[in-house]
Write a structure and sequence with these properties.
about 400 residues, disordered N terminus, mainly alpha
């Protein structure tokens, strides 16, 4: 089909609208692509704030590390408290650093689209600036001191003390950027179209969760002393569910936070990878296909479907996860309503259902029942019938007439 498509000329009639194509310069400005990038950015920020609010703030956040360093050196760090969030409470500690991470990630994404010559100049300028800030004052004071005294010597203590401020500033920024790595790499991956940066963002997020899990482990937490008391430890026994749907309580607040993090990671991953995948597909198309209106229409359909599925299927995934974790509550509620016996109430108070392995058993039961339903409910035919009816309703009236 592609070989039958003729090339469309770039010259158009004065006042006429230029035809849409699948060239990257135009496709990147299409509203579906920008929407996917905005959705991925919002999911990245939401994922980061969810992890920070539940497992980092007041537990292993950067302000606690800054306070420890200031106690060791007996002085204030040169970086301002307004930037680090020291002195604020709760999630407010991360508001200004989060904006800083978004700006740095956006700058890295913008730099990725520059020519290699511009990138080399920017990197060289950054290295020279870093060297000047680090040792510039030391070299200036040391060389001028030897020049005026006509004495060849090593730097004295007062001259070496000029290294204290830049070293502490670089250390502070490194610690701050270490906590902001998921945001920086995520924004760079979304807007800079980098799969590696997206993978790094997800990896660092999981690393934060892994570090918290290690510190919250009872054997390790007991060895931390006073520091271990500030770690948010998740007990083996969960409390009474407080979050659910249709008036049925299914999960606790801690479980819902984990579900939200997982769903936001999937939204971030699918949206950001989807943009890269679609742009790569358009880039590899022959020139004739990029100008073919049929290919443009197909790309619109694919992007619109992706946007719908992003909210539809991932929303259903979150609801299904809640039902899987609280499946024993659903079964016991059904038995109690249908039989009216006290058996369901006695079983629901069993401690096994409140432990972590009880949740695993409930989720396994839910998955097993859903797998069995596949043999009785023809899901493929149902979805095919829905799509067929949808396409039939969308067809023009004259195309629905069939000649006998």
């Amino acid at each position: 089909m592609a070989e039958d498509v003729g090339l469309q000329g770039d010259v158009t009639v004065t006042g006429a609208v230029s035809p849409r194509t699948l060239h990257l310069k135009l496709l990147r400005k299409q509203w579906q692509i920008i929407s996917l990038q905005v959705i991925a950015t919002m999911a990245l920020v939401g994922m980061y704030l969810e992890v920070v609010s539940n497992y980092v703030v007041g537990s292993i956040d950067h302000t606690m590390l800054f306070d420890t360093i200031e106690l060791l050196i007996g002085d204030q760090l040169p970086i301002g408290d307004w930037l680090t969030g020291e002195g604020r409470n709760g999630l407010a500690r991360f508001f200004v650093p989060l904006v800083l991470g978004l700006v740095v990630g956006g700058g890295m994404a913008l730099l990725a689209f520059q020519t290699p010559k511009v990138q080399q100049r920017v990197k060289l300028g950054f290295i020279i600036t870093l060297i000047v800030v680090l040792v510039g004052q030391l070299l200036l004071s040391w060389l001028t001191g030897m020049l005026f005294s006509l004495d060849l010597r090593l730097p004295n203590s007062s001259e070496l003390s000029t290294l204290e401020w830049p070293l502490l500033m670089i250390l502070s920024l490194m610690i701050l950027f270490l906590y902001l790595l998921p945001v920086i790499m995520g924004v760079r991956g979304i807007w800079g179209l980098s799969r590696r940066s997206i993978a790094w963002a997800i990896g660092f997020t999981l690393l934060f969760l892994g570090i918290h899990a290690i510190l919250a482990f009872p054997l390790i937490n007991g060895q931390l002393g006073s520091y271990g008391d500030s770690v948010n430890v998740i007990g083996a026994q969960f409390s009474e569910p407080t979050i659910g749907i249709f008036g049925l309580m299914l999960v606790t607040k801690q479980q819902f936070a984990l579900i939200m993090i997982a769903v936001l990671i999937m939204v971030f991953q699918e949206s950001s990878y989807g943009v890269i995948r679609y742009l790569e597909y358009a880039y590899r198309l022959p020139e004739s296909c990029k100008r073919d209106p049929e290919y443009v229409r197909q790309m619109d359909n694919v992007l619109n479907t992706h946007l719908k599925h992003t909210f539809g299927f991932l929303g259903l995934t979150g609801i299904a996860t809640m039902i899987a974790l609280g499946f024993h509550t659903v079964l016991l509620g059904f038995v109690e309503d249908s039989t009216g016996s006290q058996w369901a109430g006695q079983v629901s108070e069993s401690i096994e259902l409140s432990l972590t392995y009880g949740l695993v058993i409930s989720a396994a039961m839910f998955l097993s029942i859903m797998a069995l339903l596949r043999f009785f409910v023809p899901w493929e035919r149902i979805w095919g019938f829905i799509y067929a009816r949808k396409n039939a309703d969308a067809m023009p009236a004259e195309k629905k007439v069939v000649d006998i």
